[in-house]
Amino acid sequence: MNLPIGELARRTGVKVPTIRFYEQIGLIAAPPRTEGNQRRYGKTEIDRLNFIRHARELGFEVDHIRELLAMSQEPQASCHQADSIAQSHLLEVDRRIEKLRRLRGELARMIDECGHGRICDCRIIEVLADHGHCAADHVA
Amino acid sequence: MNLPIGELARRTGVKVPTIRFYEQIGLIAAPPRTEGNQRRYGKTEIDRLNFIRHARELGFEVDHIRELLAMSQEPQASCHQADSIAQSHLLEVDRRIEKLRRLRGELARMIDECGHGRICDCRIIEVLADHGHCAADHVA
DNA sequence: GCTAGAATCTCTAGCCACTAGAGGATCAAG
DNA sequence: CTTGATCCTCTAGTGGCTAGAGATTCTAGC
Fold it and tell me: Which CDD domains does the record match to this protein (chains A, B) (predicted)?
């Protein structure tokens, strides 16, 4: 277990520059180096990077991941805080889905109404140009 | 109709710095200036900015908006291209919705299974730490 | 005409989470 | 000992803005 960064990347699915970036922002610790100044990693980093990757895939922000990582280091603590981070993230995801759904509806309607003729008759252009009182006006 | 930038902002819902930014990236033209070097706008810019805002609200990228704007200037052209931009954007929105829904499912399950006890028993932390063969692994 | 305060100007830097590329050093296999 | 893959650091770029500094200009009231 003395992996170079490329091997760590292969095993975790996190790209090499991203690993270095995570080190830079302090999301993972700086590992030991070879005599020739190359990073060498162990099992700890595989786990940590996998954790980070899963959390990113679930859409957690880096700052939240920082907190979740800190919690995972304190197994006896209450998981109330982890729960609340996840909860509020779920709400955020719900908001995004709802917004996209409304948007999708408008898009689909617009496309549907397009008669595939000339620009001057096109609902797509028309809707964009003059859209004074539709739902999307109130999308944040 | 010789509006200062703040008034244009008020009428279109696009913030002042954003208007200047749009000018900088060439999304809108540089307007005439007063003797004191302040921008003054007319009806054209109101329409154009409204178009841009609507398109942004619908999630179109700036480069696509550029194309849509160019099309709207050629009323006799076919709207095939506008249609295809909108179509592919719709597909992209569908992809995003689907991705968020899968993600939401995982999040909700995770939270649901959390016993609200200690970190060492917490499904949230556990799922993140060891998540080897779940759907989210294959989310791009 | 004068003054105060609101609005405007330019410019730089920051946001997020990376990604790309230059230019050079190091490693492992043959 | 050479070759080619991998690694290093550093800077800059992505998208679509947003924030702030410090200076100027406009406008309304007196």
Answer: HTH_CadR-PbrR-like
Domain boundaries, chain B: 1-77, 82-140
ipTM: 0.78
What average pLDDT values come out for chain B (140 residues) when binned by 10 residues?
94 95 94 96 94 92 92 83 90 92 89 78 82 41
Query: Are A119 and B74 within 8 A, CB to CB?
Result: yes
Phi and psi, residue B11, nearest 5°? -80, -20
| Contact B67/A at CB under 8 A | no
What class does CATH assign to A1-77? mainly alpha
CA distance B87 to chain A (A): 7
A-chain CB neighbours of B120 within 8 Å are 75-76
Residue B48 one-letter amino acid: R
Is B112 touching A (CB cutoff 8 A)? no
Nearest to A107 by CA among B65, B93, B64: B93
